[in-house]
Automatic annotation (TrEMBL), chain A:
InterPro entries, per database record: ASHA1/2-like_C, START-like_dom_sf
Organism in which the protein naturally occurs: Pendulispora brunnea
Protein known as: SRPBCC domain-containing protein
SUPFAM superfamilies (UniProt xref): Bet v1-like
Domain Activator of Hsp90 ATPase homologue 1/2-like C-terminal: 16-124
Family per record: Belongs to the AHA1 family.
UniProt xrefs under Pfam families: AHSA1 (PF08327)
Organism placement in taxonomy: Bacteria, Pseudomonadati, Myxococcota, Myxococcia, Myxococcales
Domain of life: Bacteria
UniProtKB/TrEMBL annotation, chain B:
Organism placement in taxonomy: Bacteria, Pseudomonadati, Myxococcota, Myxococcia, Myxococcales
Descriptive protein name: Aminotransferase
Taxonomic superkingdom: Bacteria
PANTHER family assigned to the protein according to its UniProt record, in alphabetical order: BNAUNNG04460D PROTEIN-RELATED, VOC DOMAIN-CONTAINING PROTEIN
Keyword Ribosomal protein (UniProt): no
Residue span(s) of domain VOC: 10-140
Organism whose genome encodes this protein: Pendulispora brunnea
Record's keyword terms, sorted: Aminotransferase, Transferase
Molecular-function annotations in GO: transaminase activity
InterPro entries on file: Glyas_Bleomycin-R_OHBP_Dase, Glyas_Fos-R_dOase_dom, VOC_core
């Protein structure tokens, strides 16, 4: 059985690729939605640190989402992705590409490797066909809009 | 009960269906100047969800292969339409040139319509997109003195 493998989201932000990349990575804890549906430990702080994406948990512990595989400021970012209910050898991958377009940046995020998750994996919530990758796409879609809104709010000139 | 509209959403927005929705999203950007603020693609590349902005206007573009709501592309039903879209733009000449260059089929040439001294003057055109949806674009040239008084 060939399980669907990837979900992709695209958004557009009205800043240059270098800035779009910097905001995506350096301000990830500010734009990434909060709460149990979006954060790994629920209440933690998310950041890229020491070549990894980690969430520092409210309990003081730490959850490593994955190692950074490619770090090309203004162009491309690739990191591994493990959910809290993934086995040690279950690793998926997220690639984010930043391309200059119309005085801004088109940001394309692809999360791939879902076909490696066994059919009864808890992360699937019982979804085997494309419904699972659709669900992941919608989840990333909410995050992409949160990122876009964060960039737009920053771009507002300060109040006089 | 709340009548609140979420930030970034107009109260009314339309979803348009295309057989090749990813190509239509690119085309609408190229020809009409829409900005894809969100595009969610499934494993097969079809569109799970999309949001395209034109200034404060918003449409969604979906794949006909998805959904159980009887969606069809006009091109699969001899160009039939059950709606057309009307959009005010800031520079109708530039918009017309852009649409034409991108291959939009012009079905009503640029024309200034004066509705009389007590009404308004619009300059606009009509075009058919890559799969047969009908669009009207117009620029408001003047509003009657009575209306603005």
């Amino acid at each position: 059985m060939n399980l669907p493998d990837r979900a992709r989201v695209t958004t557009f932000v009205a800043v240059e690729p270098t800035e779009a990349f910097a905001i995506f990575t350096e301000e990830i804890d500010q734009w990434w939605k909060r709460g149990r549906r979006f954060r790994f430990g629920g209440q933690g702080t998310l950041r890229f640190e020491g070549g990894r994406l980690v969430e520092t948990l409210a309990s003081g512990g730490e959850f490593e989402v994955g190692r950074v595989l490619v770090w090309e400021p203004g162009a491309r970012l690739v990191f591994e992705w493990r959910g809290t209910n993934f086995a040690v050898d279950e690793i998926t991958e997220v690639e984010v590409r930043f391309e200059g377009m119309n005085d801004g940046t088109q940001v394309m995020l692809e999360h791939r490797g879902f076909s490696k998750l066994r059919p009864d994996h808890p992360a699937r919530h019982g979804l085997l066909d494309q419904a699972f990758t659709d669900m992941m796409g919608r989840w990333w879609g909410e995050l992409a809009m949160a990122y876009r809104n964060h960039v737009a709010n920053k771009a507002q000139p300060p109040l006089a | 009960m709340s009548s609140e509209v979420p930030a970034g959403w107009p109260r009314i927005s339309s979803a348009l269906f295309y057989d090749d929705a990813p190509a239509a999203i690119d085309w609408l950007g190229r020809a009409f100047g829409f900005v894809t603020r969100l595009k969610v693609e499934g494993d097969d590349g079809s569109i799970v969800h999309s949001e395209l902005e034109y200034e404060e206007g918003l449409i969604m573009v979906g794949s006909t292969a998805r959904g159980t709501d009887g969606r069809k592309s006009p091109r699969s039903i001899d160009g039939a339409n059950t709606q057309s879209l009307f959009i005010y733009v800031a520079d109708i000449e530039a918009h017309y040139a852009r649409a034409k260059a991108a291959g939009a089929k012009i079905v009503a040439e640029l024309e200034t319509k004066n509705y009389g001294d007590e009404h308004w003057v619009d300059r606009g055109y009509a075009a058919v997109d890559c799969e047969g949806h009908h669009w009207w674009f117009a620029q408001r040239m003047s509003t009657s003195k009575k209306q603005t008084a």
